[in-house]
Amino acid sequence: MADPSGEHPVRATILVNGLVQGVGYRAFTIQAAVRKGLSGGVRNLDDGRVEIEVEGRKAVIDELIAELKVGPSRAQVTWIDVRWGKASGVYHDFRIRY
Q1: DSSP notation for the chain
Q2: Is 17 a catalytic residue?
Q3: What tens digit of pLDDT does each residue of 3-48 get?
Q4: What is the pLDDT of residue 37?
Q5: 24-42 CB burial, b ≥16 within 10 A, e <16
Q6: pLDDT of residue 83
């Protein structure tokens, strides 16, 4: 089915640095992504960062990124790195990935 917005889906790999583990950041990310109709996943990395793979319209992913910069109340985001690419279409929902 064609995207009615005329915008092709894209993929973003987002790395979030700061106090983002053990503060509900993954649950916050899932709620925001599902609310926006995005697909992909979120996981904790061994180095303390959170990695998010997300696919959807770029404008909607940009909205998600704005929310991720704030995060849940107990989080302290210091910086976010975003790498853009072509959507793979492999995700059908948004969940915690291990």
Answers
A1: ---TTSPPPEEEEEEEEEE-SSSSHHHHHHHHHHHTT-EEEEEE-TTS-EEEEEEE-HHHHHHHHHHHHH-STT-EEEEEEEEEEE-----SSEEE--
A2: no
A3: 445 579 999 999 999 999 999 999 999 999 999 999 999 999 999 9
A4: 97
A5: ebbebbbebbeebebbbbb
A6: 98
Question: Is 26 among the catalytic positions?
Answer: yes
Distance CA 86, CA 98 (A): 22
- Name the catalytic one among 17, 43, 44, 97: 44
Bridge-based pairing state of the strands 39-44 and 94-96: parallel
Catalytic residue among 26, 49, 74, 95: 26
Q: What average pLDDT score do residues 47-60 get?
A: 98
Token pair recorded at residue 72: 């849940």
C-alpha to C-alpha distance for 87 and 50, rounded to whole angstroms: 20
With contact defined as beta carbons under 8 Å apart, do 81 and 13 qualify?
no
